[in-house]
Amino acid sequence: MSSSHSQNMKIGIVGFGTFGQFLAKTIIKQGHTITATSRSDYSHLCLQMGIHFFSDMSAFLDAENDVILLCTSILSLAEVMRSMPLTCLKRPTLFVDVLSVKEHPRNLLLRTLPGELDILCTHPMFGPISGKDGWKDLTFMYDKVRIQDEAKCSRFLQIFETEGCRMVEMSCEEHDKAAARSQFITHTIGRTLGEMDIRSTPIDTKGFETLVQLKETTMKCSFDLYSGLFTHNRFAIQELENLEHALFKVKEMLVQRMKEEQGQEKTES
Question: Which residues form the Prephenate/arogenate dehydrogenase domain (predicted)?
Answer without folding.
Answer: 9-269
